[in-house]
Structure formats: structure tokens, C-alpha cells
Amino acid sequence: MNKHCCGIVINDKVINIVLKVYSNQNLLIVTHLNKPGPLLLVTRESFQNGFNENNSVFTIKALFGHVESEVCAAARYIAEHVNIDKPLLLSLALEDYKLKTLEAVVAALVIGPPSSGKTTYCNAMSKFLESLGRKVAIINIDPANENMEYTPAVDISELVKHEDIMEEYGSGPNGALLYCMEYLETHVSWLIARVLNLKDHYLIFDCPGQVELYTHHKSVSKIVEKLSENLIKLCSVHLVESHHCSDPGKFLSSLLLCTTVMLRIGLPHVNVMTKFDEMKKYSEHLPFNIDFYTEVLDLKYLLEQLDDDPFTARYKKLNAALVSIIENYSLVSFIPLDISNEELLLKVKNAVDKANGYVFGGNEPQDVQTLLACAVGATSATERVSSLDEYV
Ligand SMILES: Nc1nc2c(ncn2[C@@H]2O[C@H](COP(=O)(O)OP(=O)(O)OP(=O)(O)O)[C@@H](O)[C@H]2O)c(=O)[nH]1
Ligand SMILES: [Mg+2]
């Protein structure tokens, strides 16, 4: 057993380092504060199936204490730079985590029910961001993706093919899709290694539309967890179609879906109401103003609507209970989007950049005013979205 202790001075601050080498793991304590910080176990993943990539993939488990995402990022950074060959027990207590430590790939995970406009959004948003000078790559993790109008930088079909699974196991499209997502979960190092090769890009993940993947199946949340452990800073962008506003029951179910997905995936989250250009079609079925639906205002009015409808009136108590869950969490509001309207795309972009932190660390020049405005959710005069009146 070897043990090394030292104190070094960086920028006038003493940093104490203790390294203990055991036969099956190493212990490393790095502290600015004269006491150890939270304890993490960092292990390097071995690649499965012979995928040979340059980037290392790590699993980071908190063993003791509260671990912030920046501590996780710093742990991964250290593990990569000290080139660990056996598990590393790491305790970090730093005064600040410098930008270099936190350098991460920033990404948006585009999710939502079938046909809500995910693939269209990925294509349009990537073009829009490119027109602003951002380097964008789309990662397709929908094994049954049809009508891709973009060329993905990484495509799940290189790893596993949906039609092959259907043929091999005689399963239907949904079963094969779940199999593919579970396969991706077990081979997530394949995905991470490829994504880390795109470090200078902003990433958009195009995901499948099966809602069970986001409400109770575990693969997507496990994949997200692994990506987050490996310097990929994600937020989820959840798309819901605007036609759900035309029926109080459908609107309630959308609110419930959004709340469940937000709690289940556990990422910073932006809800987007898509196909706003189609809102006019339902305008006679909209008893409330648009902001009632986008801001999710007082839901007692929605409850009244549900109680007036002979079909949903039968479930009075259930409706009231569901509404109270949504109101108690109070997490859901929507940003409207019509894919052909650049002003609305800009509004969604700003919300997503704030959620995944791109605005604070991206490659685009940001002045202090833009940063502060973004942080408090304000929009500048040039960014202000024109009225939504044209949509009703
Ligand atoms: N009118 C209108 N149509 C849209 C908009 N966004 C998407 N669509 C249409 O909605 C349909 C479904 O869009 P997709 O992008 O394939 O939806 P998706 O969520 O990727 O679908 P799945 O991957 O099958 O779950 C397509 O016909 C799109 O052209 C929009 O803003 N307005
Ligand atoms: Mg799609």
C-alpha cells in the first residue's frame, strides 16, 4: 500500500491532495477546504462488442454526501486526466470549479408523443441554429425514424436495426422499439464515445415517440443518467401538439403527461406546444384565451369544462384529483411553436439554451446583458415575440 500527501499552492490557495494506492482501487482526496468533500466511485467502462473508440466512458456513483453536477463533471475530468486503470475513490472539495473542468457537450433531448413534430423540430432547429453560426449535430436515437430530412451525425441504426429485431424475434414495431432502446442502454458507451467525438458541436437528440419510454420504462432515464455522468449536459424538450387544447380531457392528459415526464426524466425541461399554425382549426373549440393553455392558468376553469362534458362528468372526483396533482406540482407551462415561424423558434431556442446551460458556456459570444436577461427569463426588444393573435 502506498500513500502520498502533499499541499500545493495554486493562485494563492492551498490545495491538499492525498493519494492512497490499494491493490483493487485508488483513493484520491483533493481539497481546498481542509476537509474531505463528497465521496465518489469512478470506474472506467470497458467497451462491449469490440467497439473501438478513443474516448473513455466512466460510471460515477455517489457513495457519500451530496454530489452536484459540477462535482461529477470535475470527477470525470480528473479520472480522464490521471488515466485510471482501476476504480477510483474520489473525494472532492474545491472552492470553485473552473470552466475548463466543466467543459461539456451541451445537448437537447427532443421527446414527445408520436407525431408531435420531433423530427421536424430537430431539422428546423438545427438549420435555425446553423444560420446563427452554431455548429450543430443531430443524433438519431429513434430506431424506427422515418422521413429524416437531416443527415444524423450518429444514428442508432448503425448499432441496432429495428427491422432486423422485428424479423429476428417476430415482434411487432413497439416491442422491437423497446428492445432497441434496451440494447442502446446496454451499449450506451457506444453512444457516449461517438458523442464525445462531437465536442465542438451543439447536439440535438431525436427520440422515439412511444410515451411509455418517458413515463415508466427505464432505458431512456438510464441512458440520460450515463450521458450526464460523461460530460454531456442535457435538457429535455418535450413536444405536445396544440390540438390537445381543443378538448379539456385531452388537455388534462397532456398536462399529466408533461408532469410525469418531467419528474421521471429529471432533467431541466422545456415544454413546447407544437403546430400552433393549426390552432385556427380548433378556435371554436377553445373556450379560453391562448395564454390559459400556454401558461396553464387556474385549472378550476378546466375542471368546470370537464364537469360539463357528459363523458368526463362521470369522473368528477378523478378529474379533481388529477387537476390537484398538476396544480400542486405546478411545473407545466408551454412555449408555443409553429415550425415555420422564426420568432417562435427563437423563443424556444432561448428557453432551451437557458435550460441546458448553453447560454452560460457555449461558443457564441454573449454579452453580460444577454446572459442576465436569459437568466431572469427576460426577452430583449429584438427577441420579443410578436403577438400570438394571428394563431386564433
Ligand atoms: N402544420 C404543422 N405541421 C407540423 C409542424 N411540425 C411538424 N408538423 C408535421 O407533423 C407531422 C409529424 O411530424 P414528425 O416530425 O414526423 O413527428 P415526430 O414527433 O418525429 O413523429 P414520430 O417520430 O413518428 O413520433 C409531419 O407531417 C410534419 O410535417 C408544425 O409546426 N406545423
Ligand atoms: Mg420522428
Number of helices: 15
Number of E strands: 13
State the CATH topology of the largest domain: Rossmann fold
Q: How would you state the average pLDDT, rounded?
A: 86
- Give the biggest sheet: 7 strands, parallel
Q: In terms of structural class, how would the helical and strand content be classed?
A: alpha/beta
CA radius of gyration: 23 Å
Q: What top-tier CATH class of the largest domain fits best?
A: Alpha Beta
Estimate the global geometry from the Cα principal axes: globular
Helix-strand pattern: EEEEEHEHEHEEHHHEHHEHEHHHEHHH
Order of strands, main sheet, comes to: 9-8-10-7-11-12-13
Distance between the termini: 73 Å
Strand content: 15-25%
Q: Which stretches of 5+ consecutive residues score pLDDT under 50?
A: 381-385
Main attributes of the structure:
single chain, 392 residues, alpha/beta, Ribosomal Protein S5, domain 2, Rossmann fold, seven-stranded parallel β-sheet, six-stranded mixed β-sheet, 15 helices, 39% helix, globular, binds guanosine-5'-triphosphate, binds magnesium ion
